Amino acid sequence: MRLLIVFAVLIVGVVGVALFYQSDAFAITTVRVTGAQRLTNNHLEQLAAVPAGSTLLRVDIEGIRQRLADDPWVAEVSVVREYPSTLVIEIKERTPFAIVETYIDLVSNDVVPWLISSDGVWLGNTDGSSSDVIITDEEIMACHLINGVQHNVQPSLGKKCVDVGVINALTILAGLSPEMCSLIKNIEAPDRNQTTLTLRNNVIVAFGAAEDIEAKETAIKTCLNEYPDTLISINVRVADRVTVSFL
To answer: What is the model's pTM?
Structure first.
């Protein structure tokens, strides 16, 4: 008899939980987005695609998170239940770090500028505008310019760049101090070893591979300070064997 009673209680409990799970309890009435500065709330809500009538108990958290993570501007995302009725979407966006002048095809020298993030994800063509992403002119102007890349560099929205020259340039820029970066007009990145910086005073710096970055920066600054008006170029490909040329 006791076993029957326990069994009956368990059955009632399971049925009760199932009915509660399928009910409208904790219905989602608010979707709140935090952390987005460039992506519009409307775009993010469309990506999230929370079905009408969803509840906090039944909502597919992982499906929502994955749809948002597929956007190239989304670096990190979490989806959190906030009882009794709110779904919170927390976004960490990628930021435009550099503009890469890519070639239209393998033959033409016509270039198309593409935005790329510091972690090497292609974010889109700067010539195109989107109602989903708001980028200011100031942000575009603040991006580093990478040019002289190989003709076979073909950006793909949301994909990681695999070109060693571009990756090397990004690594250099990320490793230099803000002060040093502010002196750079553009960085040419045909490959890993032939990477060069053109400074705003038109001095050419043969930088090479993204190795010994701190030591190379120190060498560049030393040369600029010692020869402020006569430098043409600095070669720091080997950090402890610096060479210079003069006017």
So the answer is: 0.84
